[in-house]
Amino acid sequence: MAELLTISEVAKRSGVAASALRFYEDRDLISSERAGSGHRRYPRSVLRRIAFIVFAQRVGLTLTEIAGELSKLPPHRAPTRSDWSRLSSGWTSRIDERIAELERLRAGLTECIGCGCLSLDRCKLANPDDRASRAGPGPRYWVGDPRPA
Amino acid sequence: MAELLTISEVAKRSGVAASALRFYEDRDLISSERAGSGHRRYPRSVLRRIAFIVFAQRVGLTLTEIAGELSKLPPHRAPTRSDWSRLSSGWTSRIDERIAELERLRAGLTECIGCGCLSLDRCKLANPDDRASRAGPGPRYWVGDPRPA
DNA sequence: CTACAAGCTCAAGTGAGCTTGAAGTCAAGG
DNA sequence: CCTTGACTTCAAGCTCACTTGAGCTTGTAG
User: Which residues touch strand C (CB under 7 A)?
Assistant: First the structure.
């Protein structure tokens, strides 16, 4: 098994398109050495880094946030388990909040839409007089986003 | 209290920007009558419709999907509770799947990243040889998306 | 009557996350 | 030698969900 991987090998093994890998490199999420030809050569460790990126995306982080996290890794040595786990230690609460929101929504499906109370000014799933607190795409007025007093 | 609401009143009460309301109208998610001036006038029932839209977005539907759902409502009478609940009846499984994914991710935080096994070809959170099944933004290779055999 | 806020339409811009296309390089096989 | 295919860069395009701006009209308060 080769020491260094080509971009198509990495794409195949990671499931991430080569174009996306170049894009990630552009955004400083990953890096590559170059063969004499100018072609990218990746150490196997890039696969773990990509796994982390994909994982983080599913959790809900933007590429910018992920880049910020990755920049905290030690620059000149291979990251250890604890390096990786330190990065993701804050995610649990993020995941928990999102799960809680989804559970509220699921409850609202029967309790609010089902009972006919779905209404922006009365339903306990809505928060009436808030201005936008844009914590992501789409309107964010459901409970779960901070409610300005 | 006025029978019909202006766009800014609706924006204020719903928390959705006026520009977004015009955009939704363009996409046939909502509709308005017009005053003699050409200004939009909304019946109060639009608030419930908007609530539904916001709700559906948080669940994860695109505006196109939401438009599809809304078009199933009876065209010439006010929707009843059961009309609304019929629309959202399929969402529970969608929410459950997403919650399940988030729980897997949370588990992976300690079991996989924590233990150092985070790796696209070995970790049980990854699915090795899949091609993209784009069921949303970002790469979709983690368990939870269908795995082509 | 005059401000000025609020509304209108239509076109273009935004940002996230990529993909696609054009034009060129390089190594291996026939 | 020539083709094929994998690779390169750079610019442009795309989807989603809106927002912003230009230019114009309407409604309301003083």
Answer: A 17, 19-20, 22-23, 36-38, 57, 62-64; B 6-9, 18, 22, 32, 38-40, 132, 137-139
Please name the residue whose C-alpha is nearest to the C1' of nucleotide D25: B37
Q: What is the pLDDT of residues A64-100, one digit of tens each?
A: 999 999 999 998 788 887 888 888 888 888 888 888 8
**Per residue in B3-23, pLDDT tens?**
899 999 999 988 899 999 999
The radius of gyration of chain B from alpha carbons, rounded to an integer in Å, stands at 21
Q: How far is B16 from chain A (nearest CA, A)?
A: 6
Residue with tokens 């936008």: A132
Contact A79, B149 (CB under 8 A): no
- Decide: B109 and A88 in contact? Cβ < 8 Å: yes
Question: What distance in Å separates the CA atoms of residue B142 and residue B148, rounded to the nearest whole number?
Answer: 13
